[in-house]
What does this fold into?
Amino acid sequence: MFDLQSALANARFDGIAQIRELGLQGMITLRGDVAAPVLKKAATAASGTAMPGQRKAVFSDTGGMAWMSPDELLILCPYAEVTDRLEALTDALAGTHALAVNVSDARAVFEVSGPHAREVVAKLCPVDLSPQAFSPGDFRRTRMAQVAAAIWADDDQTLRIICFRSVARYVFGVLSVAAQKGSEVGYFQAG
Amino acid sequence: MLILECPCCGVLADETELTAGGEAHLKRFGPESSDDEFEGYLFRRENPRGVHFERWRHSHGCGKWFHAARNTVTLEVYGTYSAQTTEPPEAIRQKISGVAPGWKWRLFK
Ligand SMILES: [Zn+2]
It folds into this structure.
């Protein structure tokens, strides 16, 4: 059997926020006409959630779905279920102009948590991460330092980040630097 | 810092999230065209002080191409619009005329 490993084997860093690499996460990229009923039906069945609105993400206990672009969705599920869910999704989309691909092993997922989590990420991304502008349910693709990343908020003090696996070490590094002890900015007042 | 609103995903993206795609509304000349047309398509570009139309890609966001109308002197952004068009929309042309009467850019005014 293969010894399945996520990019950084649950690496963690504790500074003004806690950075954790979250391990293996099932992810399916789905491209197609997201307004088409057949695609909506197949996507919601695969994710176990409703359809997300523009720049939104929706989650359930075992899955999630994020709006990536006008013709792209990202379906999240437990890593062990991704093959089955992809097969069902592909079957449901037979004959439809759409593409579903397992990208789980092409990505890495991080969690940044704590009262300063927002400012750690805001140091690296050209995005308004104030609690008023970015709250749970929002989803944003952007640039994190020099690489592409996608961000959402689990709660007010917890952000999650997806990046390409090939740059996971880089992202962990810049997040750790941005979270160094004593580097609080205090721009977003907690609470 | 240039900030453009991506018409495909609605994000107010600063230029570091975008990739410049050069001049907008170029007409492609390929095989069978004259040497002058082909040279113009490949090399001749506007370089205006003032109103300008460009292609941009939301490369670190939704990934889509779009058009932007802006002023290279004042850095004012007149608007962004779909990539799926060969000319600036009327609403944007009128807006430009309001602030820069008599503007001219290639075939458009
Ligand atoms: Zn966009």
